[in-house]
Each structure stands twice: as C-alpha cells, then as structure tokens.
UniProtKB/TrEMBL annotation, chain A:
Membrane-spanning segments: none
Keyword list, A-Z: DNA-binding, DNA-directed RNA polymerase, Sigma factor, Transcription, Transcription regulation
Name of the protein in its database record: DNA-directed RNA polymerase sigma-70 factor
Molecular function in Gene Ontology: DNA binding; sigma factor activity
Segments of skewed composition (Basic and acidic residues): 110-123
Domain RNA polymerase sigma-70 region: 47-114
TrEMBL record, chain B:
Annotated protein name in UniProt: Carboxypeptidase regulatory-like domain-containing protein
Domain of life: Bacteria
Length: 210, 161
C-alpha cells in the first residue's frame, strides 16, 4: 500500500533522520526491523525506542491505568520478538505491533471493567496525573484548551482520536471490532469527532490555530 | 475497501496537535523503552511475562523512575511478592539492596535475579520464601524457573529497585 498521507512528524530522538522529509514512521520501523533481522542489534533498539511511545498511547487510549499500559507495551514487545520469524514482511511490523497492543489493551480494559464499578472511573484513568489546565506540562494556553475540549468529547471519540493521532495508518478492521462500530463508520465517526472538536475550539479564545 | 483512509490537511493538523498534547500530558514512562530492552535481552523468550500488580510507591514507574519498596507480580499460576530494602553499598559505591520474596502458592523453586549485567541465584523454600542480599540497585528482573506445578518459567517485568 503506497503511503500518500501527509508527512508525519519524525519520531523524536531519531537524530539526523528527523529531517522535514523524513519517511513515515512505519517505514522507519520496517527498516529498523530489517536491520535487526539481518543481525544488527541496534535495529531492535531503534525500533523499541521509536515505537514504544506509540504503543503506550495506544494502550492508554483504552483507558488503562499507567501500570496496565506498561504491561501491555511489554507484552507486545515480547510477542513481537517471539514471533519475529513468522513476520516475513518488514513493512508489516508497525501494523503488527499496533494491532497487537490494541488487542491486548482492549482485553485488559474489558478485564478491568468487570472489576471496576463504573466505566467512568475507568475513563478517568486516561486523565493526566495532575489533571486540569494548570498542569505545568500544559502551561501553553492553547494545549490546555485542547485538553479541556478533548475531555468534553465522548469516550468513543477520545479513544478513536488518540489511537489515530499516534497511528496514521490504523487497521480499521481491528478498531471496528474493539470499538463496536462497523468498519465503514470509522472514517465518518473520526470526521465527526474532529469536527466537534474543531467547533468547540473555534468558540474558545484561548485556542489559536497552529 | 482498503481499511484505511486518507486524512485531509486540516484533520491532519488537528491530529498533530492532539499528538503533541497527549505526548506532553501523559508521556510514556521515561525508562519504559529501557525496561523493554532489558526484558528482550532474555535469552529464552518462551516464558510467561508476569504482570505488575501493585507497587507501593505512588508515582513509581513515572518519568522519574522511582525506586520501589514493595511490589506484587501476577502470573497465571503464580503470584510473586517482593520487598526491597537498602543494604549498604558495594566496594565500588553502588548502592545495594536486599530482596525478600514470596512465591504463592508456596513452592521450592529456583529464582534467578538479573540485575544489570549480573545474574544472582536463590532457592525458594517449601513455603515459597527466598531472600537475596547484595543486589545492585537499578533495573532488576526476576525469573522463576519451572518445576513442580509450574510448567513454564515466569519472568517479571524489569523494575527499578
């Protein structure tokens, strides 16, 4: 599948490869995976460093607390390295990892939900450690406004947007199963969620279009 | 149907803003990738990875990678409780830890502790209790060897002690 999506920002910490015209992250992942399989251990390190934050945000999108998200990331890597021999197409490594993390996160979230009393508790887990726009990391008024309005979206919108924000080529078939919506409605739902967010932001003087 | 769709420029820009916001507000623990690499360095990956159930320090595993004092790991056939105490320093000044562990259900199993580039060994007694002195502070991972009712080795995620 050719990538004609807009260039995504290079993953931080990738040094000289973080140029404006950097290849998409999934393609870098494919190269790192190939390097590793060809005997270069540094390839695995690069892959882990680049993809771990993506897997983290994927797991957190499902409302897992930080420790459960940590476990999902570790389990995903263990499964990937164990199954590396059967992953013949390096181009598929990004999708394989993100789909695995989503499936693990979804399972863990369902397990937790049976134990937790309300779904709300669960969704609150996705709030930052010290919630609120005064949070130092969101000192930027614009980011704080964004945070506030994302919190006003439905849980389904928040989840979908967080998954897509970190993975611009998500596998809709698996998202469909996990979010309980038909494959054909994911694109329109994403569009509606973004539209709703844009609408909320437009009414907020703290938000400046970047 | 390809399963993916192209994203318009305005949507892509807003998604980039969201990505930045979540990256700032809820980042992955700073040492997560390092702990993953530590786990992947296991020679034998045909193991069960235990899940971290409870860690006594609030904020442990956060960006600051704080030191744990009491940790519970859970695997399908086994629960591992671990307490960590400061135990002086080595000749080179490395802080040392004493680990007291308890495997439940109790079983006399061999326990390996990987700490940095060293591997230490302990034997749990019939009640599942084991202790290790002189473990260098830093990333530590336990491996409980199969035996008796335990069919597959259990490894814990790497934790800072």
């Amino acid at each position: 599948m050719a990538s004609t999506t807009s260039p995504r920002p290079a993953t931080p910490g990738r040094g000289d490869r973080a140029a404006a015209e950097a290849p998409p992250a999934w393609e870098l992942a494919a190269r790192d995976f190939s390097d590793w399989r060809a005997g270069d251990p540094a390839g695995l390190r690069r892959l882990v460093e680049a993809l771990t934050p993506v897997l983290w945000h994927t797991a957190r999108a499902y409302g897992l607390n930080r420790e459960a998200a940590d476990d999902v990331v570790q389990a995903t890597w263990l499964a990937l390295v164990r199954g590396a021999d059967s992953l013949r197409d390096p181009q598929a490594v990004w999708r394989w990892a993100t789909v695995t993390a989503r499936r693990e996160a979804w399972r863990a979230a369902r397990r937790d939900r049976r134990e937790a009393t309300t779904d709300d508790q669960h969704l609150d887990a996705a709030a930052p450690p010290s919630a609120g726009p005064e949070n130092a990391v969101l000192a930027d008024a614009s980011a704080a406004a964004l945070w506030r309005h994302v919190a006003g979206l439905t849980a389904r919108c928040r989840r979908l947007l967080r998954v897509i924000a970190f993975d611009d080529r998500p596998d809709y078939a698996s998202i469909s199963a996990e979010l309980g919506m038909p494959v054909g409605s994911i694109g329109p739902t994403r569009g509606r969620c973004l539209e709703k967010l844009r609408h909320l932001l437009a009414d907020d003087p703290q938000w400046r279009v970047s | 149907m390809t399963g993916t769709e192209e994203v318009g420029a305005a949507d892509a820009a807003l998604l980039r803003d969201l990505r930045r916001m979540w990256t700032a507000a809820d980042p992955a623990p700073a040492d997560l990738a390092e702990r993953v690499m530590f786990t992947l360095a296991l020679e034998d990956l045909e193991v069960e990875l235990a899940q971290l159930q409870e860690q006594s320090l609030a904020g442990a595993r956060t960006a600051a990678a704080e030191t744990a004092t009491s940790i519970t790991f859970h695997a399908s056939q086994l629960t591992v409780l671990l307490t960590v105490q400061a135990a002086g320093a080595g000749a080179d000044g490395t802080p040392l830890r004493r680990l007291d562990g308890w495997l439940a259900p109790g079983a006399a199993l061999a326990v390996e502790v990987r700490a940095g580039d060293r591997t230490l060994h302990a034997e749990a007694d019939a009640d599942g209790r084991f202790a290790l002195d002189g473990v260098p502070a830093g990333l530590v991972q336990l491996r409980i060897q199969p035996g008796g009712p335990l069919l597959r080795a259990v490894v814990t995620p790497a934790v800072q002690v």
